[in-house]
Amino acid sequence: MQRIKLTDLLIFVVAAELVGAASALFSGGNFREYYDALVRPPIAPPGWVFPVAWGLLYALMGTAAYLVYLNAHDLRTAALKLYLLQLFVNFLWSPVFFGAKQLIPAAVIAGVLLVTVTLTTVAFFRVSETAGALMLPYLGWSAYALYLSVGYAVLN
Questions:
Q1: Which end of the chain is more exposed for a tag (fewer CB within 10 A), N or C?
Q2: CA distance 118 to 82
Q3: What is the CATH number of domain 6-155?
Q4: pTM of the predicted model, to two decimals?
């Protein structure tokens, strides 16, 4: 494995964060009003939790992707392709849930996201145990997001 370069690491982290920012931008921006009007499933967090959680998760996944990128493992390219796929699916959720206000399709996207994050996490573990471990909070949050998405779809 190559030596870590802070500038390169920051590029990976910022790129992941930008996916979240772009998704929010394409969502229309009236998150709080819409979210507060929905009937919430049990154990749904207050709205302010989401940007904090996602900010941390994007930083972790960007760091994990950078560690995979540094590794010369045979599965590196496949793992990074899965990473890009899950980022794309991740990007889709907010515009569908908040922008289009389509709760059932958002729940389907959340299900696809959980599958792609699971596959990415497994692939990252095969390339780098540290990278895989960094993906575990995101995997847990993705499962929670699926629960919330289905809950919102059923209750609203």
A1: N
A2: 10
A3: 1.20.1260.100
A4: 0.94
